[in-house]
Amino acid sequence: MFGFSLSAGKRSFDSLSEQEILGLAISSEEDDARIYLAYADQLRANAPQSAKVFEDMAEVEHTHRNMLIEMHRERFGERIPLIRRDHVRGFYDRKPDWLRKNQTLDQIRTEAEMMEQGAYRFYMAAAQKTSDAGIRKLLGDLALAEQGHEQIAGMLGEKHVTEEAKTEEDQGARRQFILTYVQPGLAGLMDGSVSTLAPIFAAAFATGDTWSTFLIGLSASVGAGISMGFTEAAHDDGKLSGRGSPVKRGLASGIMTALGGLGHALPYLIPHFWTATITAAIVVFFELWAIAFIQNRYMETPFWRAAMQVVLGGSLVLAAGVLIGQG
Q: Domain Rubrerythrin diiron-binding, which positions (predicted)?
């Protein structure tokens, strides 16, 4: 058995014996199989066809592992040395579970491709290092198998992930993104941008004091953000509606609400009243058109109808704030 400690540091690849190389290959195949199964579990609910692909890839890794164990049993006996990839300097790393949980389907596929490329490089280097003909042949065969994993994944994709299924998965991912982030974020941006127009511009024209106007705008924006965030998170846990994590929705709504109000409050840090007011009005113009664009891009609202609703409504609120402030 071989001990590795933080104080001793990692082993260099060149220092490994043939038995240790086999042990490292066995543990690596086991880890990769577990990673693929974890991906399958993560994808099963929203992308069942892709989940099946990763289940099949895990089966391939198990097959490789069994071949390596048989070779180790034949050459060195039953006792496999305890050596893992994190014991070897320069060995290709794997992300821990908690860093893989929130990956998108495309990120998962990219990560799997990188895993296969790293495994290929390892087997090629290991095959060059060993002088045992049987081990060298096995490692070379496994290198070719890993190199062909991209083609295997393609064949598995054709088998399990048809173009129709991939389109459905992509549409499902987009729909979930809209439900979890876009809808609450858009509601927050609209609330923060439009609802704070009247109090901020009323305060500006009533006081003529840019600093006081900024403080009023800051308090209104932050307060609205906190209120919207908690409201969004509390009224729907997402389990039945399918809208996703209430924390994510609450953060999206709260942050966008605060940003919507701060956009036209921050110009009042400028000490000159009319410079600050004109700048704030320009910011409002871009805010309202950005809302219209998002509605058109993600909510499929016709652009000009969205523009009329948001820009016209925002302009009326802005005018009301100016009139009240001058009253």
A: 20-153
